[in-house]
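Budget justification aside, the reviewers requested a transparent look at the raw inputs and outputs of the sequence design task funded under Objective 1. We therefore reproduce one unedited record. The lines immediately below are the structure tokens for a 185-residue chain.
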């Protein structure tokens, strides 16, 4: 699913962190990845600049805690006026990683109320790419708006009403006035 990143080792593309690198004082790490690193299948937005992932990790026995922030510039088409615009997102996340051996079985799953934010690792390293992808996808609005007060397009003539008025509205008002005048008569 993800395009192979330029990497020195043979790990699949991901944002891998070796658990042994997390010392007693934890580990603070930044990743900077260009947009092509993130193979986005959805086409209703685009990553337009390098994505910066800042994360800090701590370890308690086999439990790994990761908190961090994903900063990215995303490009959307406005759902009202169709203009392309860019928006900066800064999404904070926190995830706990447990060894795969501690993953609850299906029966146990039913009594675990909320395991959102928990991931599992098999080898001596964790991959935070799935978490980062989730953060990016969660930041994408269902109906992107170039600005809150976007006026959109005229439904009749297609004029972008942020740029200027079209004549349709004036005609509408004329028609309504004409109706009112008739009623008055
Ligand atoms: Zn708009
Ligand atoms: Zn119009």
């Amino acid at each position: 699913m993800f395009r192979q990143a330029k990497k020195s080792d043979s790990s699949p593309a991901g944002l891998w962190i070796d658990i042994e690198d997390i010392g007693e004082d934890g580990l603070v790490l930044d990743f900077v990845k260009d947009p092509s690193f993130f193979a986005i299948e959805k086409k209703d937005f685009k990553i337009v600049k390098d994505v910066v992932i800042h994360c800090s990790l701590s370890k308690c026995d086999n439990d790994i805690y990761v908190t961090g922030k994903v900063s990215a510039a995303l490009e959307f088409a406005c759902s009202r006026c169709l203009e392309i615009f860019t928006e900066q997102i800064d999404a904070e996340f926190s995830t706990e990683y447990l060894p795969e051996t501690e993953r609850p079985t299906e029966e146990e799953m039913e009594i675990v109320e909320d395991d959102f934010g928990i991931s599992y690792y098999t080898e001596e390293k964790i991959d935070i790419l799935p978490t980062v992808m989730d953060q990016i996808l969660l930041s994408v609005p269902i109906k992107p708006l170039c600005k809150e007060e976007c006026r959109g397009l005229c439904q009749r003539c297609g004029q972008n009403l942020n740029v200027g008025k079209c004549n349709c509205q004036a005609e509408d008002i004329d028609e309504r006035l004409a109706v009112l005048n008739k009623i008055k008569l």
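The first helix runs from residue 106 to 111. Residues 33 and 51 are 5 Å apart (CA to CA). Computational costs for records of this kind are itemized in the attached budget.
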